[in-house]
Write a structure and sequence with these properties.
The protein is of the alpha/beta class. It has helices at 17-24, 37-51, 70-78, 97-110, 125-130, 139-157, 194-203, 218-238, 257-270, 277-288, 296-309, 322-339; strands spanning 2-6, 56-59, 85-90, 115-119, 161-164, 169-173, 187-189, 206-208, 244-247, 252-253, 293-294, 311-316. The chain has a single domain (2-27, 34-339), classed as Luciferase-like domain (TIM Barrel), CATH 3.20.20.30. The mean pLDDT is 93.
Length: 340
């Protein structure tokens, strides 16, 4: 079992005073001699995670927001880590795949543990338009993403690569820089509907499983994850491929699940600019109900259930504090790895 976490940025982070402050100060100049708190907090948090046994960090991307650029943050932080692989978000349709291939191999060579790409197919139209993207929906969006990935892999794995598609066309494209590791960067993505699941089965290495929409209990989440894995295995087998599975539950230590959930929500509300507990519970409920909150032995038992289903990656949502990360690493991550 692998364990990951999110880089602390406004888009992906809850319950952090440092990130709340960085968000509030985003439109103001920094004091002389200082750096953005997102960078400082990322370094402190991810160095603690690196020492604690975590394997991967997702650098999410919000162009139209107060977040630092995912690629720049990944380069600055992940290059300082020994064990954590950088998983960087990319939106096909905003960046050219050849440029993305070059950026990817650059980061792969900068990071001891390498890098991977998280393909984000859906986003809000305003951001795409403002940053020069071409908006697509439905089948065309997945077709473009598939071609995008074909170009990436073609450039990573060949001295020269030609491609003729509906969205991208290249003749003898090439990079004068190769990936820094034996295997080319892996491709992750998340998609829910039939077209999206077919895209995953045909194209991607890893699938982040969506929570079942009606999941209100841990048993609901377990059944939904198991059904999703079985469905994706069938689709991938039809394509002559295999896909690996990850999910992103909330992980929190506490004397029991109820107490852990309550304390987590209180911490999140403390730094939410528009605190609304009912809205927050609806938004976070599936991740909170994945069964990874409470005593260490309870969490480890639940991780075993997910592992037995075929899950290989837990991308932890958690309160982003270095002490909390270290404790979760010591009491959850390391024992879970030693168990298998």
């Amino acid at each position: 079992m692998q364990f990951g976490l999110y880089a602390p940025i406004p888009m992906a982070t809850v319950g952090s005073g440092e990130i709340a402050k960085a968000h509030a100060e985003a439109l103001n100049p920094l004091p002389a001699g200082s750096r953005d708190l997102q960078l400082e907090h990322s370094l402190n948090l991810l160095q603690a995670a690196d020492r604690s046994g975590f394997d991967l960090c997702l650098f999410a991307e919000r162009h139209l927001g107060t977040d630092l650029s995912a690629w720049l943050l990944a380069g600055a932080v992940a290059s300082q880590l020994d064990h954590i692989r950088a998983l960087v978000a990319i939106h096909p349709g905003l960046l050219d795949p050849v440029l993305t291939a070059k950026m990817s191999v650059s980061l792969d060579r900068m990071c001891k543990a390498g890098m991977a790409l998280n393909i984000v197919n859906g986003w809000f139209d305003e951001e795409f338009e403002m940053f020069g993207g071409t908006i697509l929906h439905g089948e065309a969006r997945y077709k473009r993403a598939s071609e995008f990935i074909s170009v990436l892999r073609g450039l990573w794995e060949n001295e020269k690569f030609s491609f003729s598609g509906e969205f991208f066309n290249y003749e003898n494209a090439h990079l004068l820089l190769r990936p820094g590791h034996e295997r080319s960067p892996e491709i992750f993505s998340v998609s829910a509907g039939d077209e999206g699941r077919d895209f995953i089965a045909q194209t991607c290495d890893w699938w982040f499983i969506n929570y079942p929409k009606a999941a209100e209990t841990t048993d609901d989440v377990l059944r939904g994850v198991e059904d999703a894995i079985n469905d994706m295995r069938r689709r991938a087998k039809d394509e002559g491929r295999t896909v690996r599975f990850g999910m992103n539950p909330f992980v929190a230590l506490g004397k029991d699940e109820e107490t852990g959930i309550r304390e987590t929500i209180e911490q999140v509300l403390k730094y939410d600019p528009e605190p609304d507990e009912r809205k927050l519970q609806r938004r976070m409920l599936p991740a909170l109900k994945a069964g990874l909150i409470g005593k260490p032995e309870t969490i480890l038992k639940q991780i075993g259930r997910y592992r037995d289903m075929g899950l290989e990656l837990i991308l932890c949502k958690m309160i982003p504090d270095p002490d909390n990360i270290s404790r979760i690493g010591q009491e959850i991550v390391q024992p879970a790895k030693q168990a298998h």
